[in-house]
Structures
1.
Amino acid sequence: GSGKTYKIAVIAGDGIGLEVMPEGLRCLQAASKKHGFTLSLTEFDFASCDYYEKNGKMLPDDWVELLKPFDAIYFGAVGDPRRYPDHITLWGSLLQFRRQFDQYVNLRPVRLIPGVQSPLALRKPGDEKIDFWVVRENTEGEYSEIGGRIFTGTSREFVTQETIMTRIGTDRILDYAFKLAQGRPRKLLTSATKSNGISITMPYWDERVVEMSKKFPDVKVEKYHIDILTAHFVARPQSFDVVVGSNLFGDILSDLGPAITGTIGIAPSGNINPTGEWPSLFEPVHGSAPDIYGKKIANPVGMIWAGQMMLLHLGETAAAEDMLSAIEQVLGRGDFSEITPDMGGKGRTEILGRAIEKAILDM
Ligand code: NAI
Ligand code: MG
């Protein structure tokens, strides 16, 4: 093992975040024990509705200084619309992290795990693997605050919102995506565009792709307009390797991708600051699931897989490989007493977490 120690900020948040977090930590501890590195965990109770109730805010005033020294943030889920509106809870915590910590890459794996029924059920066992990454620009693009509304409520009402693409912002996300593709066997990068309709910013995006591709001559590049690309995701998901998109297109593709590989309960996500200046954040894609919170049946795989992505980011590649193999092994055997109800089983959160922990230790 590397013998290194990593400082991890642990924020469980709300709802099933509190239930899946212990399983994620259990599996991470198993991987670190086996591979000879140390995770120094510090748990925080902020970024939750309980904290808000006690303190009237989602985060302590010194949250930036508090979190900056950590190597990564391991995050559960935040929000409970029955208690407080999402614009207070999510905007007051998770979205602050993404911006302040310049987590300009949003990264999601799309991988069909053995034993998981894809909604694309006509696929047969033995078909080509679905295994690709969606890289989303996470700080600018279509999600800008430049715009406004005038003549409100009159017949002249006028609303506008600008797309912002900076050269720095565009190039750094493309650089990340090209490097990710370069490190994979197929070395194929797919760019999402819409330069036939969005005639100023999207041609610029295409131009920067061409420019960046000169630095990565070994990476094959293809581009599709976002509309047909969504169709290809469904029709031939096995043909993708790394897919990169602007903030809006990446948002759409990063929900569609995991949707074709099964339940939301298993999908993880990374919000990455590749420079390392700020901590990156790893979380399951799902939210706090108030409808099942308390029943102890939440699927812990999204949380565990997010931990696996965190280890990859930290450079603990062998441990990360073991964690992914363990997930595949346990889901692959499809034991109904282990897998959770969202996957058709009778298992509970802790049973599935412990099964994956054991598989990691037995690898
Ligand atoms: P959700 O992801 O919490 O739940 C959607 C549906 O998927 C529910 O039926 C739920 O039971 C099911 N589900 C989710 N995770 C599951 C798991 N691990 N195992 C089994 N089933 C699972 O989304 P929803 O209901 O729209 O939002 C609930 C709250 O969570 C809101 O406050 C929302 O803003 C917040 N949220 C937070 C996110 C985050 O912290 N990153 C992301 C998405 C939503
Ligand atoms: Mg989304």
Note: Residues 118-261 form a domain with the Isopropylmalate Dehydrogenase fold (CATH 3.40.718.10).
2.
Amino acid sequence: ESLTESLDELARELDRAHVFHSWSAQAQPSSLVVASGLGCRVWDHAGREYLDFSSQLVNVNIGHQHPAVVQAIREQAELLTTIAPATVNLARGEAAKRIVSHAPSGFHKVFFTNGGADANENAIRMARLHTGRDKILSTYRSYHGNTGAAVVATGDWRRIPNEFARGHVHFFGPYLYRSEFWAETPEQESERALRHLEHVILAEGPSSIAAILLETIPGTAGILTPPPGYLAGVRELADRHGILLILDEVMCGFGRTGRWFAFDGYDVRPDLITFAKGVNSGYVPVGGVLISDPIAATFDERVFPGGLTYSGHPLAMASIVAALDAMESEGIVANARDVGDTVIGPALDDLAERHAVIGEVRGVGVFWALELVADRETREPLAPSAMGRIKSALVGRGLLPFVMDNRIHVVPPCIVTADEVAEAMAIYDEVLSTALEGEG
Ligand code: PLP
């Protein structure tokens, strides 16, 4: 056995012995070792190569090991690795200025957090203090993070064992493929989902509601691109009742949809924007809240009762500056849009024509979902056992997939090339042909 193979085995042994993993039963260890990466690819110690069509947790927008970002972190580390949040620091101001430059008019301030969950946590806090109201409305099909209010705002199964925060109410957002509203067209889905939300607002008491919190495009829940008019309709309902709109751009922001913010693709303007992931592609943990002027002004004279030791950490700040500058100068957001429109979208449609197991293809930019079904007529989700086989077969053929419930999310870095997409498509194609053999 070679030295590199034994490093992979050592990594697995240490992991099994001592590492406690997220969202999982600990007796079922993962065996995938990753030791290094570059661009859209990662390798284990022995040199086994994987094409990363997950962007890890849909966060490595700029690709692995972008040299300018690595260099910026190295330079900042040599200058000043850490400093308290109350201190003025140039890297922090430069990072905030760049984030603000991509926001709509009327946004000038950024509060930095350690990640996406605490970004939502603090946006919720700001909304409650600004409005003097309590309730937060969010959708059943959503993920907002693992902490106190964020996990209870979350719509999926992860909320249920964690319901210790109060003041959260859920509603159904639009999802035409599995409509809660018997809708047959995007227009019906939009109109009826808005009517449902209006009824929830009225039933809860509009004057008790601080904010509606939405992922602009729900990500983990299925890349549920909203139908025409929906987000504008939510904005209108919020305005009518003095309710704030928080858009969670943690997964869909910073290039993922082929735009700087996903909401740039829709006719809507939020009051608070939460971000993390793509802002620096996760090279150093960071997130934050972009705050519109009236909400920022609430805290001009009044103390904001929130803070973090690592708010605006210099290594994170330097990585944001370098990542956003590289995304701008290398046209990385435009690449996500072009590759999505001209390569990924058509290739997935083509895949769906050849594989009856694909019930729906939806998405934009480098943010796509294949919804797999046992039967196209009934739309019955493909069984977990079959999804498990598909996932292992993809990894076995050297592709890191993002698999969630009965879906494959096709979410490569924003720098992905047409050749890499073609390579991935050949793997999806082969796996969908072979992994389901013998399936009823
Ligand atoms: N919001 C959305 C939309 C997310 O997708 C995630 C993470 O997947 C989060 C919030 C939480 O971010 P973090 O894991 O950085 O706390």
Note: The CA atoms of residues 269 and 418 lie 33 Å apart.
3.
Amino acid sequence: RPQPIAAFNRIGEENAFAVLARAAALAAQGRDIINLGIGQPDFATPEHIVEAAIKALRDGHHGYTPSVGIEPLRLAVAADVHRRFAVEIDPGRVVIVPGGKVTMFSAILMLGEPGAEILYPDPGFPIYRSMIEFTGATPVPVPIREANGFAFSAEETLSLITPATRLLILNSPANPTGGVTPKAEIDKLVAGLAEHPQVVILSDEIYDQFLFDGEAHTTLLAYPEIRDRLILLNGWSKTYAMTGWRLGWSLWPEGLYDPMRKLAVNAWSCVNAPAQFAALAALTGPQDCVGAMLAEFERRRRIVVEGLNALPGISCATPRGAFYAFPNVAGTGWKSAKKLASALLDETGVATIGGPDFGVHGEGYIRLSYANSAENILRALERMGRFLNERP
Ligand code: PLP
């Protein structure tokens, strides 16, 4: 029996996919499952974007494209960044990738090795830690605390940096907490990073349009003092409801751009051509579809937060971004949030994810994705209420 190298024993998973599979298996047995587990918009990709992909296929875009992506798309990414943040980026440093995940995978692979320390948010997207461990680098969790509004604390983050720190991963708005790190805190963090010039920053801004109450996104692109060591992760998956298209973009600093280009040549050649034309239509076409989806997310956010706070033993801070609620379930009497999440699925058919799947600081919480209809969210809350009243 062939065996992979030892590094593969250290690679993790994203439990959301396991929950998705379990939920599908239960649904196949005839159970009525409400999936609040997976983090993907429940909307269809807007029609004009789908049409652009179909047109690209009809127009004969069937071959390889440049590994870094088609030129008009890289230009459109730079124009979109300028439109939204009044910041200039060099389209010659933009790489179109098959999903936001590929940027984090590549960045961590490029900078992680035994002896190197990589800071990442905990609770945070599980792939950060998994990939850090894969490379043999030392994962250093940055605690993300409810008491701090689920934001990064500049002071605590900076205190964890050592001469061995190679990479700092930031994520705001954040998965799984919905936390948004305030601009003042990012200002402080960036100022402090001046003393640690060896640290590269990977800013995962995949939820950069998912902010509520009229709040503006603070992009790390707005800080020229760290631009020469910033990797920016973004993409289309969440904003344009395109998770299955496998598309993303990233910006790389000098020194890391060419290795990234070569990795693309070696590993995936290019992102599939029609998807790139769809991405181009997403950026250059009407943006009202984004606003309509966001308005619906904002409406559901209110329903889910109010509903959760009415449940026994649960308290839920209002998330300021993304499309997740991260309620504190410590008061339910369940010692293990993972056990609570799996009991909820098995006994009530409501799929959620246990907080510990996002890191050790996730204990005592569960994650609900409100990328589901308001009607289903209300049904899920009612089932959870009945369950918690009967099984405190
Ligand atoms: N970054 C964060 C924080 C995410 O939550 C996700 C997806 O859930 C991604 C990146 C990856 O997105 P993609 O589907 O484009 O790979």
Note: The first helix runs from residue 15 to 28.
4.
Amino acid sequence: HLSVRLATVGKYVKPNSRLADIGSDHAYLPINLALNGIIKYGVVGEVREGPLDNAKHEIAKAGLNEMLQPRLADGLAAIEPGDNVDHITIAGMGGALITHILESDKERLTGEETLILQPNVGEENVRRWLMDNGYTITAEDILEEDGHIYEIIVGQQIGQVPQYAAEDLFFGPKLRIEQNQTFIKKWQRELTQKQGILDNIVQSHHADQTKVSQFTNEIEMIKEILNSES
Ligand code: SAM
């Protein structure tokens, strides 16, 4: 019973791989991938006892004690060199927390791992971190479930220095070219929301000019992409 969101994250994990799922909560994603024969080994990282207990319970129930290792750890500290993980998933948190988790322990990354990241908000942060750390965005996805729109960003170090324009970081280098229905819906929503926020800022007595120009720029970018022919 995997959500469409987690199933889509799982699509980017290659068969026969070794996964670390950081912030796993119930470990639904690694359990599903193990049962489907996609991963042969998985580290299940959790920073909190309660969710880790959930994970342990679900792993035992699925009979996967041999294949999945639940570990109480902050972020990438869950990963040990002997794990030889080749995929890392971090899903269902804000982009700022995801980049914090990556940044604060990045010496643990070998550069060989495929990073599959699903920020609930703050996608731009995540893309900027990937670019700044030499990761090319090799795939992106966008989906709607229960009224929420989610993005998935896949980063890999593939031996070239990625250069992304402001629009790439904001909309996603692949999503903005593809412009599917869900993408259009997301940015129509964002446009309405940002226009509302800007109106409120402008009407307040001491309008913060930095915010005014930030929102004005973003609104212009969104209008441009929604009006462009794809
Ligand atoms: N990844 C699952 C998903 O996408 O459905 C669970 C998402 S849940 C909303 C976020 C989980 O991340 C929580 O269980 C929380 O305890 C965990 N978490 C937050 N910060 C973390 C960190 N620094 N290291 C490991 N886990 C963390």
Note: DSSP finds nine helices and seven strands in the chain.
